[in-house]
Amino acid sequence: REEVVTIPVVVHVVYNTDEQNIGQEQIDSQLKILNEDFRRANPDAGQVPEVWRDLAADALLEFALATTGPDGEPTSGVVRKETSVAEFSPDGDAVKFNDRGGSNAWPADRYLNVWVCPLKDALGYAQFPGGPPETDGVVILYTAFGTTGTATAPYNGGRTATHEIGHWFNLRHIWGDDGTGCAGSDFVEDTPNQGGANRGTPDFPKTSCDNAPNGDMFMNYMDYVEDAAMFMFTKGQAERMDAALAGPRSSFLP
Ligand code: ARG
Ligand code: ZN
Ligand code: CA
């Protein structure tokens, strides 16, 4: 694919306190990060270790707040909903349903639904392609969304949404989701085999699973490091996202 594909986004701000009713500037700051990260236009791309610089990919994906709503009406692409739910749990998906204190998904074949809310025990979570349309999209904790307002260090780099939208495009965790073992795979050829998740801000190189000398690609968006320590997708990951776009998410193609 050579053309950029733009994904229309609806942001559901589901708030229990005034603070959680995040401002437009914070929403815009998140969209800006997405449009950098998925185009390899992020200012920290230069920190990718030399050995992997050629692998860093422009995924040719951009994101824009929807301007037309589900019934063709003009929209800001932001839905604001006050809730009596103090904190949503990732299991249960209540945030995605009006009748459970959340906000109903917009048609998942035309919009990427992003819910921003008070979320229990997680920075975010995502639904992979192929799941039920009513719950399709990503959920992000309001303190891990965007780069301003309520965004809080070390998750104020907008990378939680980058990571979760990676999942929405079918990317797996880079360590293969097998705990710390070496048998799991992310089904991407050009990411090194890696034991478990990395956290914090590791020093390069950090090895596991016989992957010396370069070690883990912990600076990948699909690891668990802090926002400031992640700054790349690989070409293989971009291909996998492309396959999702050609397959289960093809309704987003022009
Ligand atoms: N699903 C992960 C969690 O809830 C998100 C990790 C995002 N990492 C980040 N640096 N923002 O913990
Ligand atoms: Zn994840
Ligand atoms: Ca592994």
From TrEMBL:
Statement: the UniProt record of this protein carries the keyword Zinc: yes
Keyword set includes Zinc: yes
GO biological process per UniProt: proteolysis
Domain Peptidase M43 pregnancy-associated plasma-A: 104-246
Lineage: superkingdom: Bacteria
Record keywords: Disulfide bond, Hydrolase, Metal-binding, Metalloprotease, Protease, Signal, Zinc
GO molecular function term, any single one: metal ion binding
Protein family according to the UniProt entry: Belongs to the peptidase M43B family.
Name of the protein in question: Pregnancy-associated plasma protein-A
Species this protein is from: Nonomuraea solani
